[in-house]
Amino acid sequence: MTEPIDPGARVGHVHLKVADLARALGFWRDVLGFEEQARYGDQAVFISAGGYHHHIGLNTWESKGGSPPPPGTTGLYHVAILYPTREALAKALRRVLEAGIRLDGASDHGVSEALYLRDPDGNGVELYCDRPREEWPRAENGDGVGMFTAPLDVRALLELASD
Fold first, then answer.
1. 84 and 48, same structural domain?
2. Is the pTM of this model over 0.85?
3. 94 with 158: CB under 8 angstroms?
4. Do 87 and 59 sit in the same domain of this protein?
5. Average pLDDT score over the chain
6. Strands 14-17 and 56-59, bridge-based pairing
7. 126 and 82, same structural domain?
8. CB 69 within 8 A of CB 19
């Protein structure tokens, strides 16, 4: 076995190819609430939460006017946005539903609660929040995490979105 990655390493950002920058911003900025940090004309925008230089890059460098990759091809499965609390996830759910965006799924994974949807370019998006580590299910043999997939009660989650 090779030496594991440094435990301080983190995924810093994701860069997505999009067909139309304005349309992509309509989702990532206007629906999900990411803030624009930098722009390269009409070709790229860098957005983030909390003023970071960028969590997500959106560009049309190789994809302007393009279409999503067809099923059965390789590529990004989804990008996951981690919310700090269940209440913050509930508010994101409300914004998504109010924008008329359809959920592809909603799951309880034991370690987290997750909502699945697609951006306007067909990229998979997971919006989720983790449960506290001490509540994570353990594998039957006691080694590692015992994740599972069960239906998520979306109505109960949405009830937390009151202002």
1. no
2. yes
3. yes
4. no
5. 94
6. parallel
7. yes
8. no
